[in-house]
Amino acid sequence: MSFNSFGRVFRFSTWGESHGPAIGAMVDGCPPGLALSEADVQPFLDKRRPGTSKFTTQRQEPDQVRILSGVFEGKTTGTPISLMIENVDQRSKDYGDVAKAYRPGHADYAYDAKYGFRDYRGGGRSSARETASRVAAGAVARLVIPEVTILGYVSAIGGDAIDPAHFDAAEIGNNPFFCPDAKAAARWEKLVDDARLAGSSLGAVVECVATGVPAGWGAPLYAKLDAELASAMMSINAVKGVEIGDGFAAAALRGEENADPMRPGDAGAPAFLANHAGGIAGGISTGQPVRVRVAFKPTSSILIPVETVTREGQASDIITKGRHDPCVGIRGVPVVEAMMALVLADHKLLHRAQCG
Amino acid sequence: MSFNSFGRVFRFSTWGESHGPAIGAMVDGCPPGLALSEADVQPFLDKRRPGTSKFTTQRQEPDQVRILSGVFEGKTTGTPISLMIENVDQRSKDYGDVAKAYRPGHADYAYDAKYGFRDYRGGGRSSARETASRVAAGAVARLVIPEVTILGYVSAIGGDAIDPAHFDAAEIGNNPFFCPDAKAAARWEKLVDDARLAGSSLGAVVECVATGVPAGWGAPLYAKLDAELASAMMSINAVKGVEIGDGFAAAALRGEENADPMRPGDAGAPAFLANHAGGIAGGISTGQPVRVRVAFKPTSSILIPVETVTREGQASDIITKGRHDPCVGIRGVPVVEAMMALVLADHKLLHRAQCG
Amino acid sequence: MSFNSFGRVFRFSTWGESHGPAIGAMVDGCPPGLALSEADVQPFLDKRRPGTSKFTTQRQEPDQVRILSGVFEGKTTGTPISLMIENVDQRSKDYGDVAKAYRPGHADYAYDAKYGFRDYRGGGRSSARETASRVAAGAVARLVIPEVTILGYVSAIGGDAIDPAHFDAAEIGNNPFFCPDAKAAARWEKLVDDARLAGSSLGAVVECVATGVPAGWGAPLYAKLDAELASAMMSINAVKGVEIGDGFAAAALRGEENADPMRPGDAGAPAFLANHAGGIAGGISTGQPVRVRVAFKPTSSILIPVETVTREGQASDIITKGRHDPCVGIRGVPVVEAMMALVLADHKLLHRAQCG
Amino acid sequence: MSFNSFGRVFRFSTWGESHGPAIGAMVDGCPPGLALSEADVQPFLDKRRPGTSKFTTQRQEPDQVRILSGVFEGKTTGTPISLMIENVDQRSKDYGDVAKAYRPGHADYAYDAKYGFRDYRGGGRSSARETASRVAAGAVARLVIPEVTILGYVSAIGGDAIDPAHFDAAEIGNNPFFCPDAKAAARWEKLVDDARLAGSSLGAVVECVATGVPAGWGAPLYAKLDAELASAMMSINAVKGVEIGDGFAAAALRGEENADPMRPGDAGAPAFLANHAGGIAGGISTGQPVRVRVAFKPTSSILIPVETVTREGQASDIITKGRHDPCVGIRGVPVVEAMMALVLADHKLLHRAQCG
Predict the structure, then answer these.
(1) Pick from D214, D252, D263: CB nearest C203
(2) Pairing of strands C262-264, C65-67
(3) How far apart are CA B174 and CA B176, in angstroms?
(4) How many domains, chain A?
(5) 3-class SS letters over C95-131
(6) Chain segment C111-120, per-residue pLDDT in tens
(7) What are D151-206's pLDDT values in tens digits?
(8) pLDDT tens per residue, range C140-189
(9) Which residues contact A307 (CB under 8 A, 6 or more apart)?
(10) Is A258 annotated as a binding-site member?
(11) SS3 letters across chain D
């Protein structure tokens, strides 16, 4: 029941702070014999890497991953895979104010209340920097589920949503927002830049679809596939909501509208005529695409002063200097994808355990 | 990593099917010395009990709980508490059609795909009847957290929401909908009854607020309080979305709008001027009320025919006879409350373990 | 991390006290589609059942098991299997003295120290009566590993050991001691009866061999097959030692004496020329028989007075009335077998999870 | 349920192979605010370090530990503590033969059977080198239990046991065998050296006593303190047996001989007149010293040829070159101590979780 581990059979643990010497992940339970090298992990880290456009933090981290164990002659051995990423561009001097006062929206006060003190440098353990470890672990998870394709993208920033009619997966890589709608991407350029220049920040919605998931993954009742995805996504920094399929929209529907009717399909499996359920029924995958939506709040670190209190209990105003993403949801895309991969890999193995 | 267990130190497991002889829960890790008898559990089961109004299923279940272990001379002993509820009013003959064809929106096909066959009587293990076990376990959890008050209610049915300005907690017990807005409750009478008479069903949103939670509960990063709540809520039948605090609405805000500013408060703790975060920052409680919103899809069992396929792969239409809730979200309220209690009790003990 | 659960994928939990209304087990993670009825479980309970000879406690318990969930139309469904055994022959009045003073060798003082009080009736949760739940769960586990044959027996009582040269598996069922050596069984008649008549008790050694275990089960490094067996066996009441293969005898050997040499065998697997290792190397089964030895201390409940203290801290002498086994190790045989089956079933599934 | 993790609240995971770039441990759940630096860990690693006398392997490893996370300004933060030890003196060329044939007594064949192939360099993950990670984690665990003193020593080598009458704890550090009996240590010089020169090896018995453990630690029934210790010890390389208290000797006793009588003691706690039970009753500590005995088999790597088979199934003889301990049990002492500390730290926190 490690606090810093996730998963059941395919299980990963992460360690490290924003301004420590390194961060890392340990992946346990990985099947043996899978081809794995740093080159399989690095592209996903590069996708999440900071400093690649003006719309992300200017911290410059190469995020070079090293595999320290669990691989022999290019293949996983079935033993723990230790992944390490050195921190390079720490600037702890930015955090003098943070040591003394609590940044609203951040975990500063909560950590102090829980642990009695905190590593304030860059948010310490609560920094989104930790998500690099998830992305690295997620790259390993993808090797376990070659039958699955995972596609994440941003569907709204600051309340400005994509038009589903303009959805084009090929566009996602063509803009700095992981946006599948070219017109929305064009609007967001100004939207995000304005927020950045104003020292403000914006929330976002990330969607993620996994196709190729066979029917039968998920272990009811308390390891339901949707419950695991909810936990996985809600554990990401800044996430405040998770939906499976239609999510809250389903709460406004009638039963006949929300049904996913079936007709005879290929190979004995039903062909579904709709997917309100997001590919999961009773906590088990149905063979349809698994669809998740994730709400990211706006970055809490802003240059606009906010009322706060100091550790000594004095009133103060705080502005959060340092280098921050104006919209943390953007770089959330590879993290959401990684968590999807990690949950699915685990449940593929779990299903195999129980159902052969 | 039991599939049918939830929690870490204060941990419960459930067993039983809709039409088996009984259902039950085992609570493990409960602190010793707490006064506990059936009378502490029964009121919560009565709140969830079917057959109490025309707006819920007409299945008549007394839902009498028996405590079979873990209590001696009226106090918990620290050993497992076994709670059993006998099933009384099964009518398995209603389920002949269900044996042969898959009900859209139900777990029928997914269970067949996973396990090769299924107990089709009343949905078997996937029936919402299981939630009675959660409610029983939740009643024990409440004893562990006497400092916390949990208040659940329905905030919308079929897209018709309460008016927050009319919120009155005292109203919740005055109508069959757990509705805190008398006017909305009056509207829902007709709304739900119309759906029922039409053989249709409605979705709902349930909200739950826990006050009195001290700052410091929650174990980052993968046992964050919000991640655990998300998992807990998403594991409930028919739930498709979970929000903490402002949830998806936060994704449309700017950083300065979403901040929860602080001023000096009593006893050294900050006084928060807002609670967009829903009482949780960095996965740790802040001392503010913990707020969760949960989306229930409309009941999948409806009398309106839906296209489906048989187990043999033939096209068919199905209507789901039997006795069903026209809006399963209503009776979801005591279940959501129970899951809130179970998560909080567990995290109170976890916090005590690590932080003394 | 339930305290009262064991196993990882195939996982069981037990509940219940010696003098409560019932005891039981919940088995989670069982593969679906296995034929299971009470008739598959009862014979193992009958083997452990008290009151069958003068060499066991005279408590009369029919130990009739009921399956309350997880089985449909005679087959396991993949959902939790709830097994319940009602307690029938409680005589709590025997335990007046126990309420007031601590029985040496029992858990009385430790439970009081831990929990602040205890259910003193028959030892409450710490009673060996709980092992009936293990035996019931173990009967389910056996269905998961039809390729494995498990043979348990008593190899020594009160220091009087069987002669390996006289080992005859067919003898085990011919005497009340599960003794494979007819001559030893004859000696033990008098040995155990003398102890019983003297109000004393005797320790015993139980051995258990599992044949048919394929190479590859066990998950190093902290779920090694031998580590799991050690935990499983040491969790049994009265057990104080566990050996795998030669155990402590290996500590007196030289490397070349302790080696298990190999020669080419059938079907590509090596043929081992010895089995000092007890069928486990590096925490993984080798394909050889898995051999475990378990030390049971003498029953702590004796009629010979022992110095003790009361709950109030006064010096006292105590004799333990009630109905007790003069040698608790004898009825330990079906329990050791059950734990062997439970560990192996779990690791079969675990191996399948990771290694396909 | 990580395979490579141990513990429940205070939980550690290890990674790394004998001949990889590094090995390491991650400690999760450690209480915050404990003073910790590399200097707290290094002395325990030095105690286990190879190459310090002719009685241990000549591999030269400085075993310098680095703390990569979880400590801020000299104190634990409550977040994961990552400990890394670089491998320096690998000589993989020694292992050419091992790649082709199975070393009897080693995990070679079992790993191949399980995973399909193996990292044969120095035994890979199955090497005793991993125990350095345990020792590092154990040093952290000791900080959690300052009330406890842990004393480990070798009590027998190759069947030659110490004389309890000559036990002198002060002697343990005076010889290369962790031997508390100066006369035995003198005998072992020749015994071990003879074995070494003959290319053979010897088994050993390690004993470990923890004093200062208060009554009440341990969580029955499946997280009993003795069951956890059994699992912890049996997971150590080369261990084949575990005893608590009198262990197998208790199986030869009568009830009145094995009783630990009590008389009124100080501060309300009983004074025990004996400790056959090894400080644990019903799986819970009694306040007496916790005593464990552990059997180490002789090192399997010997220079005496043993019959084996190749990976291709051909008969062969193998001698294991490389640098090996003539008696692996000797360096087992700090490992056994570490596992004792890790189990006790975990159970201190668990007890606090449930019982306040």
Answers:
(1) D252
(2) unpaired
(3) 7
(4) 1
(5) HHHHHHECCCCCCHHHHHHHHCCCCCHHHHHHCHHHH
(6) 999 999 999 9
(7) 999 999 999 999 999 999 999 999 999 999 999 999 999 999 999 999 999 999 99
(8) 999 999 999 999 999 999 999 999 999 999 999 999 999 999 999 999 99
(9) A104, A315, A316, A317, B261, B262, B263, B273
(10) no
(11) CCCCEECCCCEEEEEECCCCCEEEEEEECCCCCCECCHHHHHHHHHHHCCCCCCCCCCCCCCCCEEECCCEECCEECCCCEEEEEECCCCCHHHHHHHHHECCCCCCHHHHHHHHCCCCCHHHHHHCHHHHHHHHHHHHHHHHHCCCCEEEEEEEEECCEECCHHHCCHHHHHHCCCCCCCHHHHHHHHHHHHHHHHCCCCECEEEEEEEECCCCCCCECCCECHHHHHHHHHHCCCCEEEEEECCHHHHHHCEHHHHCCCEEECHHHCEEECCCCCCCEECCEECCCCEEEEEEECCCCCCCCCEEEEECCCCEEEECCCCCCCCCCCCCHHHHHHHHHHHHHHHHHHHHHHHHC
Distance, in Å, from the CA atom of A155 to the CA atom of C59, rounded to the nearest integer, reads: 69
- CATH assignment at residue D274: 3.60.150.10
- Percentage of chain B lying above the pLDDT 90 cut: 88
Q: Which chains touch C (3 or more CB pairs under 8 A)?
A: A, B, D
**Is C293 known as a binding-site position?**
no
B47 is in an annotated binding site: no
Please tell me the distance in Å from B302's CA to the nearest CA on chain C: 25
Q: Is the pLDDT of residue C247 over 70?
A: yes
| D354 with B355: Cβ contact below 8 A | no
Residue numbers of the domain that contains C78: 5-355
What is d(CA B148, CA B76) in angstroms, rounded to the nearest whole number? 20
**Chain B: closest CA distance from residue C253 (Å):** 40
**Helices assigned H by DSSP within A23-130:** 38-48, 96-100, 108-115
Residue A43 has a pLDDT of 96
Scan residues 313-332 of C and list those with Cβ closer than 8 Å to D.
313-315, 329
- For the cut 80, the answer to whether the pLDDT of residue D95 exceeds it is no
Concatenate the DSSP letters of all residues of A172-198 into one string.
Answer: GGGSTT--S-HHHHHHHHHHHHHHHHT
- pLDDT level of residue C94 (50, 70, 90 thresholds): low
Nearest chain A alpha carbon to C350? A353
CA distances to A254, B96, B97, B202 from B322, rounded to whole Å, are 18, 10, 11, 17
Amino acid in position B90: Q
Closest to B117 measured CA to CA, from C71, A312, D84: C71
Contact B110 A314 (CB under 8 A): no
Buried b (16+ CB within 10 A) or exposed e, C219-253: bbbbbbbbbbbbbbbbbbbbbbbbbbbbbbbbbbb
Chain C residue with the nearest C-alpha to that of B14: C80
Q: Which of C212, C236, C180, C201 is nearest to C285 (CA)?
A: C212
Residue D61: pLDDT band (50, 70, 90) is confident
The verdict on whether residue C13 carries a ligand-binding annotation is no
Whether residues A250 and B295 touch (CB distance < 8 A) is answered with: yes
The answer to whether B14 contacts C80, with C-beta atoms less than 8 Å apart, is yes
Interstrand relation of D315-318 and B65-67 (parallel, antiparallel or unpaired) = unpaired
pLDDT, tens digit, for every residue of C249-288? 999 999 999 999 999 998 778 999 999 999 999 999 999 9
CB A281 within 8 A of CB A299: no
Instruction: Report the residue of C77, C129, C350 to disrupt the B interface, i.e. the one with the largest count of B CBs within 10 Å.
Output: C77
At residue D1, the pLDDT reads 60
**Nearest C-alpha of chain A: how many angstroms from C30?**
7
pLDDT above 80 (res C92): no
Mean pLDDT of the region D80-109: 87
